[in-house]
Amino acid sequence: MVKRILKFLLLTVVSLLIIILAFYAFVSWDFAQRANQSYSYEAHAPEVVYDSTNLVLGKHLAIIKGCTDCHGQDLGGKVMIDDPALGRLVPSNLTRGEGGIGAQYSLQDWVRALRHGVGPDQKPLLFMPAHETANMTDRDMSALLAYCTQVAAVDQQLPQLEIRPIGKLLNFFGKMHMFPVEMIDHDFLPPADMDKSVSPAFGEYLAVSCTGCHYSNFKGGSPQIPNSPPVADITSSGNLARWSERDFIQALRTGQTPEGKHMQNEFMPWQMTKEFTDEELKSLYIFLKNQP
Fold first, then answer.
1. The pTM is what?
2. Within this chain, do residues 175 and 254 fall inside the same structural domain, yes or no?
3. Out of 121, 166, 220, 227, which could bridge 231 as a Cys pair, Cβ 3.0 to 4.6 Å?
4. SS3 state of residue 256
């Protein structure tokens, strides 16, 4: 009797292992298929003017859009995460220095990357949040391109990006988006410019940068990166129900919430949001406060 039970348990364990391995083999195949998919998009680069006004705006956008948060203050790239199970996430060296992509990228390549999430080889740029820059106005895109293409060269060779088993599984279940190219409306025609005075419309334009963590409905929930705290609801059903505009601005400028909590920058990048102008923060508050 005992031998039968042990035999049954052994067969059950073996069967489960076979099922798990077969499922992971499918997940890995699916990831490879999507990673090697070719995309062909025309990239219409706006006129890029390298004057002081454009460069100042471009630097500001590089900060508030998270470029410097991921690629480093000098845009020289860095290893963001190197986890044996999740993977090695390595935002590129964007400069013209050794190991950088700046010398190889044309303006059209930059636009394809920022508007479509696709590299010069027509393959998806993994984990590059192009869905947050795809809808930028031509005016802002021009300024960002001006800044990024003239930034000082940084000589830095970085290791290859690598997505490991847990990363592939999280991507498969929609918990970690490795293919932003699949999230973009590639037929969208960006406006030439927009009114940047305080308004809900300007706030909505800015809030796309919040969707990477807080999701498209801004309700937050489970984090996209394992071992991170839950993501806050930043709509009227969350803290904004109690926060005044002044509270909101103080939290995003200092990292201190009205409740006395200090936000850790690695989970809520207030060192980035503190660079928003008053008009930008007020517009963002109005927009988020009006979300149900």
1. 0.90
2. no
3. 220
4. strand
